[in-house]
């Protein structure tokens, strides 16, 4: 098995190495962790499972046939969503919303390697499912309200490129509406709308914004351990009832590292057929508990609530 990160010798790789020896993790059969490194080229062999922070389309482009994609903080939303969906009788709508309340937001949470990946990916559209049809939007084109755990509570959110519309719809084709969004102020969402259109229509504008993202000063791993994040998933059933599952914590690098290790451990028991997201590894509660033990996250679920 190969664990891949965007930085072969960065903060995430170092934390993964530290966690691999944790005695609380149960490995299936012989422990087969082969390497931590950038890219997934070591996973081309059919008998090797790749656990990576890369998306499923990126793994497939590398020639990987068996793997777990998007195993990072961003992939935690897929697991939280799977837990909510498991408690809905006939889910029709799934909305995954993120919040990064500290100054600097999402960019401040990212390592240099993660920011470089974001810069390379600026032209990627916002994908959503609406009324059973796949659609592409500009960033922040759609604005909604999401209820986060305290002290954040209700927040206005705008649509962003996310993993869940593709991953959840693949596992739950009956879902009509699936979206990913991030909490943002009205002024911020209007700016993102403007820049989003520029990024799509102008190669020069996209290159300038990408360079600014890459050159952003890094806060360092020590400061990053204190940065907060939260994700909430709201699933609406066919009868109008609501299931809400949430997770929150600090230290995004620690969460990403824990997701990689927990996914690798679960894949060692049951190697995936094809490429799956972390929510496709079974028992989302066990995954969340495992990440909680390694990275100190909190999570919970609000049961079925009748909508007015």
Quick structural overview:
The chain is 37% helix and 25% strand. It is built from 11 helices and 14 strands.
Fold and architecture overview:
With 308 residues, this protein is of the alpha/beta class. It has two domains: 2-71 and 252-298; 75-250, Dihydrodipicolinate Reductase, domain 2 (2-Layer Sandwich), CATH 3.30.360. It is 37% helix and 25% strand. The strands form three sheets. The chain has a seven-stranded mixed beta sheet. Helix 5 (112-120) packs antiparallel against helix 8 (203-215). The longest helix has 18 residues, at 252-269.
List the helices and strands and how they pair.
Layout: E1 2-4, H1 11-19, E2 36-37, E3 50-52, H2 56-61, E4 67-68, H3 73-86, E5 91-99, H4 105-109, H5 112-120, E6 126-130, E7 133-137, E8 143-147, E9 154-159, H6 164-171, E10 177-183, H7 186-201, H8 203-215, H9 221-224, E11 228-237, E12 242-250, H10 252-269, E13 275-276, H11 284-295, E14 298-305
Parallel strand pairs: 1-2, 1-3, 3-4, 4-13, 5-10
Antiparallel strand pairs: 5-11, 6-7, 8-9, 9-10, 11-12, 12-14
Helix pairs in contact: 1-10, 3-10, 3-11, 5-8, 7-8, 10-11
Question: Could you list some keywords that capture this structure?
Answer:
5-stranded parallel sheet, 7-stranded mixed sheet, 25% strand, 14 strands, 2 domains, alpha/beta, 11 helices, single chain, 308 residues, globular
* CATH architect. name of the largest domain: 2-Layer Sandwich
Helix and strand element order: EHEEHEHEHHEEEEHEHHHEEHEHE
Distance between the termini: 49 Å
* Helix content range: 25-40%
Q: Write down the overall geometry.
A: globular
Instruction: Give me the number of helical elements.
Output: 11
């Amino acid at each position: 098995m190969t664990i891949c990160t965007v930085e072969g010798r960065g903060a995430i790789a170092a934390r993964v190495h530290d966690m691999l020896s944790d005695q609380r993790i149960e490995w299936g059969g012989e422990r087969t962790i082969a390497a931590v490194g950038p890219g997934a080229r070591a996973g081309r062999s059919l008998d090797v499972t790749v656990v990576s922070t890369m998306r499923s389309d990126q793994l497939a482009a590398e020639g990987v046939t068996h793997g777990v994609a998007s195993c990072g903080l961003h992939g935690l939303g897929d697991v939280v969503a799977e837990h909510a969906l498991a408690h809905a009788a006939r889910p029709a709508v799934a909305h995954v919303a993120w919040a990064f309340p500290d100054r600097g937001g999402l960019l401040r949470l990212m390592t240099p390697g993660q920011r470089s990946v974001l810069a390379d990916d600026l032209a990627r559209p916002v994908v959503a499912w609406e009324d059973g049809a796949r659609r592409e939007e500009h960033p922040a084109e759609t604005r909604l309200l999401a209820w986060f755990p305290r002290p954040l509570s209700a927040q206005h959110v705008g649509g962003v490129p996310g993993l869940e519309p593709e991953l959840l719809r693949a596992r739950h084709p009956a879902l009509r509406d699936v979206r990913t969004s991030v909490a943002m102020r009205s002024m911020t969402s209007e700016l993102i709308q403007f820049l989003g259109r520029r990024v799509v229509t102008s190669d020069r504008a996209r290159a300038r914004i990408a360079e600014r993202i890459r050159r952003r000063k890094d806060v360092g791993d020590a400061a990053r351990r204190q940065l907060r994040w939260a994700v909430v998933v709201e699933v609406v059933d066919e009868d109008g009832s609501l299931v809400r599952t949430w997770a929150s914590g600090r230290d995004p690098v620690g969460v990403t590292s824990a997701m990689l290790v927990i996914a690798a451990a679960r894949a060692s028991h049951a190697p995936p057929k094809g490429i799956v997201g972390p929510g496709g590894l079974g028992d989302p509660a066990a995954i969340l508990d495992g990440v909680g033990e390694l990275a100190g996250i909190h999570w919970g679920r609000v049961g079925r609530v009748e909508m007015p």
